[in-house]
Specification:
The protein is mainly alpha-helical. The strands form five sheets. The protein has a three-stranded antiparallel sheet, with no helix packed on it. Strands 1-3 form a two-stranded antiparallel ribbon. The chain has a two-stranded antiparallel ribbon with strand order 2-9. Helix 3 packs parallel to helix 8 and helix 11 packs antiparallel against helix 16. The two termini are 35 Å apart.
């Protein structure tokens, strides 16, 4: 993906919600002193805008260098056998075993250095705001500190969810030392909560925020982060505040991912005119889109049969997929599946850009056999393509880069965060109400549940409602389930696809159930905490490697 921080600083008015506002009118200088930068409100906001760029890193670069973390679960499969990121490496991570050394995990999944660099820059900005921004109105100074502390809370949340015990630094730059010990996970959560509370209290509501970070973002992030901290009452309180601010579910699930409307709490916008674009469509568009314009691209990762079977029928209940676990000419029940499937997965015959998807042998989109065809070149290895997040309006004949916004925080997730917290806090009525609202949006029936059945429903809704949004791997990990045997966890299973072959009769196809893995997947329990990188160990005398990675 391409990003341009200066362009982001100009376009930040579009970052935090659908409200429109004027872009900042400030010509970047090759060099400007900190004193001048923090002297006036426009330049101080411009300085804070550069910290906003870490929203992109958190959403795109930091989750996993190897690719979307869904590929480490049963949701997604990268189809290329080339030994690269976005190719075979995600599968290699999912296979686990002796490959997952401390150095390997740090290279492909760790982001200690990147996150701490962002923390350092954020702390410098807070320090400069306090010492050099004294000419600003007190309300503006406090608001900007709220924005920066929200970003710092987010950065530390990303560190703690990966590493648990981390090194805490604040805006006291004189206290920075090469040798600094790890703080406990409890101390880290207290630090994060303090920053979140400051942001919640001092940021404006969306209507007054001029497109900048606002209270809704602070409360929504708190509803996510405090799940990891097991602060159930904190999650519930934050979720309730989000609702009070006027956020609610969109009527149309598919429309949510355009980034407009009352469900979107935080989105990351892009702009051709500012040269701020992304390559999500290049990686995940159906390969036939490229074939039709005589180019190659798309189809790097595709949904699995396991993920398809996670969706219910539109009328409720699950279809019996047994006939498709062998070879059959019977048509799969795609058209009967619920709206979230239709909005998330492209399948054989699905309507797309004025045509029908052809993920079969010899089709426009095509089929590639896992491992035997090293480079699929846009063809699917599972019989499916990703729809959620891919821009159906993107014209590849004009350009490969895309500008569809990324929806980073939305009310649907907040509701599910509340459902989980209510369940943990022994409030089944609250949990049932949230699950019912999520299912009602897509027309699925629901009856109140309790105990294990209620937890299973919450888990099911998180998997399906939030599919391909970067959360499922981390959910399994924080629940302590990842090291369990599949389907509860990520051990002892393979993911599958449907190989589709045209029959002798036009419009008839043979569907064959095939594995798209080399071997069973494995998640060792030490992956519940990523290792400290050797660079930190070599330079910090007060830190030693976590016990499970020694």
């Amino acid at each position: 993906m391409k990003k341009n921080i200066l362009a982001l600083a100009a376009a930040v008015a579009m970052l935090s919600g659908p409200a429109c506002t004027k872009m900042l009118d400030l010509t970047p200088k090759d060099s400007i002193s900190d004193k001048v930068m923090w002297a006036t409100l426009p330049s101080a906001e411009y300085a804070v805008n550069s910290i906003y760029s870490y929203v992109y890193d958190i959403y795109v670069d930091f989750p996993c260098v190897a690719g979307m973390t869904e590929a480490l679960t049963d949701q997604l499969k990268y189809g290329s056998y080339l030994y690269n990121s976005l190719c075979f490496i995600p599968s290699e991570i999912a296979y686990g075993g002796n490959t997952l050394t401390a150095n390997y995990v740090d290279v492909y999944m760790g982001c200690w250095g990147g996150l701490y660099n962002a923390v350092r820059r954020t702390n410098e900005a807070i320090s400069n705001l306090r010492t050099l921004g004294t000419g600003l109105e007190q309300a503006d100074q406090t608001r900007l500190e709220g924005e920066l502390r929200l970003m710092r809370a987010w950065l530390y949340f990303e560190l703690v969810k990966r590493y648990k015990d981390v090194i805490l630094y604040d805006e006291d730059l004189q206290a920075i030392s090469t040798d600094k010990a790890l703080s406990s996970e409890a101390d880290a959560w207290a630090f994060i909560k303090k920053d979140l509370a400051f942001a919640e209290e001092n940021l404006p509501v969306k209507a007054d925020a001029r497109g900048r970070l606002n209270k809704g973002v602070a409360y929504a992030l708190a509803s996510r982060a405090l799940l990891y901290a097991k602060d159930w009452e904190g999650v519930i309180a934050a979720a309730d505040k989000v609702k009070e601010l006027g956020y609610e579910l969109e009527d149309d699930y598919a429309g949510v991912f355009k980034g407009n409307g009352r469900e979107t709490i935080l989105r990351y916008n892009f702009s051709y005119s500012d040269n701020l674009t992304h390559s999500f469509d290049y990686y995940y568009t159906p390969g036939g889109d490229y074939a039709l314009v005589n180019e190659q691209g798309g189809g790097y990762a595709t949904p699995t049969q396991e993920m398809v079977e996670s969706y219910e029928l539109a009328a409720g209940g699950f279809p019996d997929w047994t006939p498709w676990h062998g070879t059959t000419t019977q048509e799969p029940p795609y058209e009967l599946l619920e709206p979230r499937f239709q909005a998330s997965v492209l399948y054989n015959g699905a309507k797309w850009k004025g045509r029908r998807i052809e993920p079969f042998v010899g089709g426009v989109d095509g089929w590639a056999e896992w491992k035997k065809e090293t480079q699929p070149q846009g063809r699917t290895t599972t019989g499916y393509y990703l729809r959620k997040g891919v821009d159906e309006d993107h014209d590849l004949s004009l350009r490969s880069q895309s500008i569809q916004p990324f929806v980073v925080l939305r009310y649907g997730e907040v509701l599910l965060n509340r459902a989980e917290a209510c369940f943990r806090a022994n409030d089944p009525a609250g949990a049932n109400a949230a699950v019912r609202a999520i299912r009602a949006r897509v027309g699925l029936p629901y009856v109140d549940l309790s105990g294990d059945a209620l937890w299973a429903a919450i888990r099911q809704e998180r998997k399906v409602e939030l599919a391909f949004e970067g959360l499922w791997y981390w959910d399994l990990r924080r629940w302590g389930d990842a090291s369990k045997t599949y389907p509860a966890g990520l051990n002892a299973y393979q993911v599958h696809g449907l190989k589709i072959t045209p029959g002798a009769i036009a419009g008839q196809y043979e569907y064959s159930y095939v594995s798209v893995d080399d071997k069973d997947r494995s998640y060792p329990s030490r992956m519940d905490r990523f290792p400290i990188p050797s660079s930190e160990l070599n330079n910090n005398a007060k830190v030693e490697q976590y016990a499970e990675w020694k």
